[in-house]
Amino acid sequence: MNNADLQHLHCCVELATEALEAGNEPFGSVLVGADGTVLAEDYNRVAAGDQTQHPELALARWAATNLTPEERAGANVFTSGEHCPMCAAAHGWVGLSRIRYVSPAEQLVTWLAAVGGVGLACASAADSSGGGRSRSRGSVS
After folding, report:
1. Which residue segment(s) compose the domain that 48 sits in?
2. Any idea what the CATH number is for the domain that residue 121 is in?
3. pLDDT (tens digit per residue) in 11-50
4. Which of 19, 66, 76, 100 is least enclosed by beta carbons within 10 angstroms?
5. What's the DSSP call for residue 68?
6. Cα distance between residue 132 and residue 8, in whole Å
7. Is residue 56 part of a domain?
8. Where are the beta strands (DSSP E) in the chain?
């Protein structure tokens, strides 16, 4: 991990803060091209009732529409929290490269328990996803 990676992760935390301030769950993500250029960013938008509005899924959709398969293979996702199963599948199907995250899924579950079980829609999925096994993953083929 280098300084640029850390800057991208810091941006994810800022996006997660924006999401929380907007009434959403605190997750933010950045898609970075092979050359280090930020291609797209988003934060969680589930407050309106659609629990699939995760930033990682939005970035995978954006990549599928706007990048060639070769560009997607070199693009990395930086995110505030480890991918849930839905987002991990989208990441793999679209053919994105590495995932870098600030917090593993098992940490999310621990935090939620510490604050009295305040629930996030993705918490049960995170708890069963086998989170925390790896901090960086390649694409699924």
Report:
1. 3-128
2. 3.40.140.10
3. 999 999 999 999 998 899 999 999 999 999 999 999 999 9
4. 66
5. -
6. 20
7. yes
8. 28-32, 38-43, 76-81, 99-103
